[in-house]
Design brief:
Largest interface: A-B, 27 and 30 residues
Strand order of the largest sheet of chain B: 1-2-3
Strand content of chain B: 15-25%
Order of helices and strands of chain A: EHHHEHEHEHEHEEEHEEHEEHHHEHH
Shape of chain A: globular
Number of helices of chain B: 11
Distance between the termini of chain B: 59 Å
CATH architecture of the largest domain in chain A: 3-Layer(aba) Sandwich
Radius of gyration of chain A: 22 Å
CATH class of the largest domain in chain A: Alpha Beta
Oligomer: heterodimer
Helix content of chain A: 40-55%
Number of domains of chain A: 2
Number of helices of chain A: 14
Structural class of chain A: alpha/beta
CATH architecture of the largest domain in chain B: Alpha-Beta Complex
Strand order of the largest sheet of chain A: 2-8-7-6-5-3-4
Distance between the termini of chain A: 39 Å
Helix content of chain B: 40-55%
CATH topology of the largest domain in chain B: Sufe protein. Chain: A
Number of strands of chain B: 8
Radius of gyration of chain B: 24 Å
Chain lengths: 399, 273
C-alpha cells in the first residue's frame, strides 16, 4: 500500500511520537542495565525510571510519584485496581459501574457478578450521560467500589467522574473510586490530587507512547494487594523487572501530552468540528451519536442511517481512510455496540455508526480529503440499501 | 480486518445487479434492520420458469453485499427448479469461501432466495411468521436454525452463531440452541448406529467410557471394562469398588447406560457380565 493514509482511529491506538521513540532508543542497546542492580550502570537506569514516574505523576496531578504503578496496558490497570480493591474489601459484596464501560471493566464486573457480587450498572441517556441521582440511590452499606470511565471510547462523551467521586465519598468515604481514564488522558486536563478519585488507569498507546505500557494511579493510603507477587518492583504491587524502555517512553509521552493539551483542546477540536459539521452538511443520512457539547476534543461518532458500518469502513479503507465502527461486524462479535445500544441509538443508525478520532498529528489536509471523498462513498452505498423510501425522506428533509 | 477472498472484495467493491426490478415476478426478503443485515431480492421470471433478471438491495456488511451480488449472478439463466437447489454453501463457494463468522451472510442470501421462490409459487409467506422464534435479538426461527444446522453439519454453538447470528447478542437463547444441536446430533447418530461396523461401535463406546464414565467411577475407587458389543447391546463388567457396591445396578442403568445413550444412541442397552 503506497496510497495516502489518513489515520482517524486514534481512540484505537496512536502513532508513537518520534520524540518518544528517540527517548526510548538508548534503553535497548546502550543503557540496558537492571534498575535494581547495585552497580552504577543499573543505577542510572533506575534514575531514568524514577524520572519517568515523576513525569507520569505530574501529568496526572498526583501528589507523590509513589502513587504511580507502571502496568502493561489499560486493561491490566483496570484489573489491578478492581480485583485489588475487592480482595482488600472481601466483606463487601456490592459494586457499581456504568453500562458503557470498556470491556476491561465491564467484563470484569460480569465476572464478579457470576462470583456472587451484587452489581449495579448505571444507565446512560441518549446523550451518553449518567444520572448522578441514580448513582446516589444505588449506594448501599454493602458497596465496595465504584468504577467509572472518564470519557467514553466510542462517543468521546465525558462522564462527571469528579462529581460522582465527591458524591460517593460524602455518603460513605470508605467506598473506593476507580476511574478508567484511558480515553480522557491527553485530551482533557486530569488533576487527581484535588479529587476524591482513589485509583485511575491510563494506557500509553492512546497518548503516543508504544503499546504494552500503562500506569495506574493509586492514592496514598489506598490498600491494594500485590497484583503480581514476586520481587520488590513497583513497591511489591507488580513484581517483575521493569519494562524500562517503555516506561521511559510513557514518561516522555506524558510530558508531551501535557504540553499539547491546549493544542488538543483548540486545534484538534477545531479540526474535529470541521469534519463533523462538514459531514452533517454534505451527507443527508448522517447524525451525531451522543452529546456534542461535553466531549473529548478529538472524537466524533456519526451514525449513517440505513447503511451498515463495516461496509462503510471497507470502502473508506480502500481510499486510505482509517476509522472504526461501533458496529458488530468489525470486532468479530455479532453484537452491535453496547455503548450506542445503552444510549438508545435507533437501529437505523446503530449498525452504521462510525467513529472518527483525531490526534495532534491530524492535519487540515487530512480532514479536507475525507470531506472530499466520504460523501460519494456514502451516496454509493445508499444506492445498495433496501431502505430507499426512508432515505428519500431524509434527503428531502435535509434540503 | 477480515480475511476476505479476492472474489468477496471484488463483489462488495463493485456489486452487480444492484437495485429494484419494476414489476418483478417474485420478491424475497430476509433479515431486518434490527439484525443489522437485510436483503431484498427481486426476480424476473419468464413463461418457461427461467430467471431472466435478478437484482438486489442489501443492508449489511461487505460479505453480505458480496453474497447478494454473487447470488444474483448465479440465478440469471437458471430455472426456478435449478435455483431452488442453490444452498448457502453454494453461495459461499461461489465467493471462494467466507470467514466462518460471516457464513450467516450466505445463509441470508439463501433465505431471501427461498422467500422469493415461495413468493413466485404463491406459497403463503406468512406461515413463516408463526414459526417459533428462538433468538429474539436477531429474530431467528427454529426452522432456520434446524436447516442451517442440518445442511452445514454444524455441531457447536459457535458455528451456529456464525452461520445464523442466533445467540450472538444477549445470549439468552444459548441453551435452546444447544438443545436443537444435540437433538439433531442424536438423531443423526441414531441412524448411524445401524450402519456402523462392530469395530466402529466399539471405538465409539470405548471413547465415551474413557472420557465420561470411567473417570467418575475411578473417583470412587471403581472402574469399568468393555467386554463385548453385539448389535445395540453393550456388555461391560464393573471393577474395583463398583463390583462389590450394592448400588452397582443403579450405577449401570442411571449412569453408564444413560451416558452411552446420550453420547451414542438412545437405542443402546447395557448388560453387565
Amino acid at each position: 500500500m503506497t496510497q495516502k493514509v489518513v489515520y482517524l482511529d486514534n481512540n484505537a491506538t496512536t502513532m508513537v511520537d518520534p520524540k518518544v521513540f528517540e527517548a526510548m532508543k538508548p534503553y535497548f542497546c546502550e543503557l540496558y542495565g537492571n534498575p535494581s542492580s547495585m552497580h552504577a550502570f543499573g543505577g542510572q537506569v533506575a534514575k531514568a525510571v524514577a524520572d519517568a514516574r515523576e513525569q507520569v505523576k505530574n501529568f496526572l496531578g498526583a501528589k507523590d510519584a509513589k502513587e504511580i504503578i507502571f502496568t502493561a496496558s489499560g486493561s491490566e490497570g483496570d484489573n489491578m485496581a478492581i480485583r485489588g480493591i475487592l480482595e482488600a474489601n472481601k466483606n463487601k459484596k456490592h459494586i457499581i459501574t456504568t453500562r458503557i464501560e470498556h470491556p476491561a471493566v465491564l467484563n470484569l464486573y460480569k465476572y464478579f457478578e457470576k462470583q456472587g457480587y451484587d452489581v449495579t450498572y448505571l444507565n446512560v441517556d441518549a446523550k451518553g450521560n449518567i444520572d448522578l441521582n441514580e448513582l446516589k440511590n444505588a449506594i448501599t452499606s454493602e458497596t465496595a467500589l465504584v468504577s467509572m470511565m472518564y470519557a467514553n471510547n466510542e462517543t468521546g462523551v465525558i462522564l462527571p467522574v469528579e462529581k460522582a467521586a465527591k458524591l460517593v465519598k460524602q455518603i460513605n468515604p470508605k467506598i473506593k473510586i476507580h476511574v478508567d481514564a484511558v480515553q480522557a488522558a491527553g485530551k482533557i486536563p486530569i488533576d487527581v490530587k484535588n479529587t476524591d478519585i482513589d485509583l485511575l488507569t491510563i494506557a500509553g498507546h492512546k497518548i503516543h507512547a508504544p503499546k504494552g505500557i500503562g500506569a495506574l494511579y493509586v492514592k496514598t493510603g489506598t490498600l491494594l494487594p500485590a497484583f503480581v507477587i514476586g520481587g520488590h518492583q513497583e513497591r511489591g504491587k507488580r513484581a517483575g523487572t521493569e519494562n524500562v524502555p517503555y516506561i521511559i517512553g510513557l514518561g516522555k509521552a506524558c510530558e508531551l501530552a501535557q504540553e499539547s493539551l491546549k493544542y488538543e483542546m483548540t486545534e484538534v477540536k477545531r479540526l474535529r468540528d470541521k469534519l463533523e459539521q462538514g459531514i452533517l452538511k454534505k451527507v443527508y443520512n448522517a447524525k451525531v451519536n451522543g452529546a456534542t457539547e461535553n466531549r473529548v476534543p478529538n472524537t466524533t461518532n456519526i451514525g449513517f442511517q440505513y447503511i451498515e458500518g463495516e461496509l462503510i469502513l471497507l470502502h473508506l479503507s480502500d481510499l486510505g481512510i482509517c476509522a472504526s465502527s461501533g458496529s458488530a461486524c468489525t470486532s468479530g462479535s455479532l453484537e452491535p455496540s453496547h455503548v450506542l445500544k445503552s444510549m438508545g441509538v435507533p437501529f437505523e443508525s446503530l449498525h452504521g455508526s462510525i467513529r472518527f478520532s483525531l490526534s495532534r498529528f491530524t492535519t487540515e489536509d487530512d480532514i479536507d480529503y475525507v470531506l472530499k471523498v466520504l460523501p460519494d462513498v456514502i451516496f454509493k452505498l445508499n444506492k445498495i440499501s433496501p431502505y430507499q423510501k426512508e432515505l428519500k425522506i431524509l434527503e428531502e428533509k435535509h434540503r | 480486518m477480515w480475511d476476505y477472498t479476492e472474489k468477496v472484495m471484488d463483489h462488495y467493491k463493485n456489486p452487480r445487479n444492484v437495485g429494484e426490478i419494476e414489476n418483478p415476478s417474485a420478491v424475497g426478503e430476509a433479515g431486518s434492520l434490527v439484525c443489522g443485515d437485510a436483503l431484498k431480492l427481486y426476480l424476473k421470471i419468464d413463461d418457461n420458469g427461467v430467471i431472466t433478471d435478478a437484482k438486489f438491495q442489501t443492508f449489511g456488511c461487505g460479505s453480505a453485499v458480496a453474497s447478494s451480488s454473487v447470488l444474483t449472478e448465479m440465478l440469471k439463466g437458471k430455472t426456478i427448479e435449478e435455483a431452488a437447489k442453490i444452498s448457502n454453501q453454494d453461495i459461499a463457494d461461489a465467493l471462494g469461501g467466507l470467514p466462518p463468522q460471516k457464513m450467516h451472510c450466505s445463509v441470508m442470501g439463501h433465505e431471501a432466495l427461498e422467500a422469493a421462490i415461495a413468493n413466485y409459487r404463491g406459497e403463503d409467506a406468512s406461515a413463516h411468521c408463526e414459526e417459533k422464534i428462538i433468538c429474539s435479538c436477531y429474530h431467528v426461527t427454529e426452522n432456520v436454525l434446524r436447516e442451517a444446522i442440518e445442511d452445514n453439519n454444524l455441531t457447536d454453538l459457535e458455528d451456529v452463531m456464525n452461520y445464523t447470528k442466533a445467540g450472538g447478542a444477549c445470549g439468552q437463547c444459548h441453551t435452546a440452541i444447544q438443545k436443537i444441536i444435540d437433538e439433531i446430533k442424536n438423531k443423526k447418530e441414531k441412524i448411524d448406529i445401524k450402519n456402523m461396523s462392530a469395530t466402529q461401535l466399539i471405538l465409539k463406546v470405548n471413547n465415551v467410557i474413557e472420557k465420561h464414565i470411567a473417570p467418575e467411577l475411578r473417583k470412587d475407587g471403581g472402574d469399568i471394562e468393555l467386554v463385548d458389543v453385539k448389535d445395540n447391546k453393550i456388555f461391560v463388567s464393573l471393577k474395583g469398588m463398583c463390583k462389590s457396591c450394592k448400588f452397582s445396578s443403579n450405577t449401570l442403568t442411571n449412569f453408564v447406560e444413560a451416558s452411552l445413550k446420550e453420547h451414542i444412541s438412545p437405542d443402546i442397552e447395557v448388560v453387565e457380565v
